[in-house]
Design a protein that fits this description.
Strand 2 (13-16) and strand 3 form a beta hairpin. It is built from 13 helices and 15 strands. It is of the alpha/beta class. Helix 5 (242-252) crosses helix 6. The chain folds into three domains: 5-235 and 293-312, Alpha/Beta hydrolase fold, catalytic domain (Rossmann fold), CATH 3.40.50; 242-281, no CATH class; 316-517, Rossmann fold (3-Layer(aba) Sandwich).
């Protein structure tokens, strides 16, 4: 393709309800960055952006939500390459990649970033770049920033109606962004009636939160939840936020809750982190995750899926190793025999556990060295199995997957949390640790093709993939993506609960020792 860049006053200008925006043209697509979709006072609901005169310069990314601890040292960049950006509370902005300024009714994919409900941004990972997905898939791609942590999920409702849904302010931002998409995306070539929300880790959990939030109904047609069913690790906030607010006020020497709205963010974040752990030990509300109330129906695991969104097609899945694959492996798997692998497993988990687990593991993963049992995720996989059973009982459009492709790191490390993101975005060329000759391109074609097919029709099947059937409560039909991608049925249903039973304590110790290695 001939590389073409165009940036001049007559090109890539689009009218929105708030005014004109100007992006730029690059190799067949038009790119717009940092468009404001709302504004909000701290702890308050987002409001529409005021109309501006002239043309908004949409060639630079907008602010990202401030982190609780901006002094964290970057690490793990080989596995999950990141980029960091200017932080400010005025972070309600979005980015658009579109091939369609001269087209219409293209599928729209709206990306919700990871980092739990506490951290991350729309541009944090290098692989979040929407350019390749837009061009190769002929779709409109949108990524959004929104409030996080104490700014986005802090219940102050006991202090007045003005704070009625402050415990879900971040979700309200996401809904405001989806409303903006509904009202404006047609001018960018997108179809407002064919919007797919997709996200990984905390972003996947945000997709579920939207399913459970009535105000989001009708703003999206499909959802993709990647490694976003995490059970208690991202559990809803419970109890009143009054104790948390009063503890922060005491720490900050404030007499009125309104003072929390104006205190400088670094001071607010420091006070929040200081009191959070004290309250958590007492089992009290500490914020940082969605809050069940009149606006949000709560986790489906506890409260069931809302019937109003029960027919939304969903792709739901996990990665083989998730968090455990961030931990260093002290052996060379390329020269390890099966017998040697079994011996390591016995030493690590004990003979009794090994005798029960190894036969089931070999049956589920006959292609793997038994030593890989030590990196098998259950933290995400077990609640995901339940999520699929529960949701597939409501419909015939719930599709399950597992990303099972080892990476060319440390002689073939099992795939880690976030390892599938470059394949979903068609961005493996941006992440060196994905590169394996003759493998990467084929798996990327399969995964990316599924995402685009699903965004178009709600069905992930396409020519480069074996038949992928929706799951039922009795049969989880899992598309296992690896060197021999195939659909398997209930293949790990006996194994995973026992892995949880025998390996939880080992996992907990390993995570404590390597807690700084986990990436989002």
């Amino acid at each position: 393709m001939e590389q073409v860049f165009i940036y001049h006053p007559e090109n890539a200008i689009v009218e929105t309800e708030s005014g004109k925006v100007r992006g730029y043209f690059w190799n067949g697509i038009s790119i717009f960055k940092g468009i404001p979709y709302a504004k909000a006072k701290r702890f308050h609901a987002p409001q529409p952006v005021e109309h501006w005169e002239g043309v908004f310069d949409a060639t630079s990314y907008g602010y990202v939500c401030p982190l609780l601890d901006p002094s964290q040292r970057p690490n793990g960049e080989l596995l999950v390459p990141h980029r960091y950006w200017i932080m400010n509370e005025d972070c309600q902005n979005l980015n658009i990649w579109t091939p369609g300024l001269e087209q219409s009714a293209l599928p729209v994919l709206v990306w919700l970033h990871g980092g739990g409900f506490e951290a991350g941004s729309a541009i944090e990972q290098v692989a979040y770049e929407g350019e390749s997905m837009c061009r190769e898939g002929n779709v409109v791609v949108v990524s959004i920033n929104h409030r996080l942590n104490v700014l986005g999920y802090c219940d102050l409702s006991p202090f007045g109606e003005q704070y009625a849904n402050s415990g879900n302010a971040g979700t309200d931002d996401i809904i405001a962004a989806l409303r903006w998409v509904r009202d404006n995306i047609a001018n960018f070539g997108g179809d407002p009636d064919n919007v797919t929300v997709f996200g990984q880790s905390g972003g996947g959990a945000k997709v579920t939160t939207l399913l459970q939030t009535p105000a989001a109904d009708g703003l999206y047609a499909k959802g993709i939840n990647m490694s976003g069913v995490i059970g208690p690790l991202l559990a809803d906030g419970t109890g009143s936020g009054e104790e948390l607010a009063r503890a922060m006020m005491k720490e900050l020497k404030l007499n009125d809750v309104s003072g929390l709205e104006t205190v400088p963010y670094p001071m607010l974040a420091e006070a929040y982190q200081k009191v959070k752990w004290v309250l958590a030990k007492e089992g009290l509300y500490v914020g940082g995750t969605p809050y069940k109330n009149n606006f949000y129906a709560g986790s489906p695991a506890e409260h069931g899926f809302r019937k109003e969104t029960s027919q939304i097609p969903m792709l739901v899945g996990t990665v083989y190793g998730e968090f455990t694959s961030f931990m260093p492996t002290p052996y060379n798997k390329s020269i390890l025999t099966a017998a040697q692998g079994e011996e390591i497993v016995c030493q690590r988990i004990g003979m009794e556990a090994a005798q029960e687990l190894l036969p089931l593991y070999k049956k589920a993963y006959p292609e793997r060295n038994p030593v890989d049992l030590l990196n098998l995720d259950f933290i995400f996989r077990m609640p995901t199995m339940q999520y699929v059973r529960q949701r597939s009982a409501l419909n015939q459009c719930t599709y399950s997957y597992l990303f099972n492709l080892d990476m060319p790191v440390d002689h073939g490390r099992t795939p880690w949390h976030c390892a599938d993101i470059p394949y979903v975005f068609h961005n493996t060329n941006l992440v060196p640790s994905t590169q394996e000759k003759g493998v990467t391109e084929e798996v990327e074609k399969q995964i990316f093709g599924s995402v685009i097919a699903f965004a178009r029709t709600g069905n992930p099947n396409h020519a480069a993939l074996p038949e992928w059937s929706p799951s039922t409560p009795e049969e989880e039909r899992i598309m296992v993506f690896d060197k021999q991608t195939r659909q398997r049925i209930n293949y790990d249903e006996e194994l995973i609960p026992l892995v949880s039973k025998y390996m939880w304590s080992i996992f907990a110790r390993g995570m404590e020792q390597n807690k700084d290695s986990v990436q989002h």
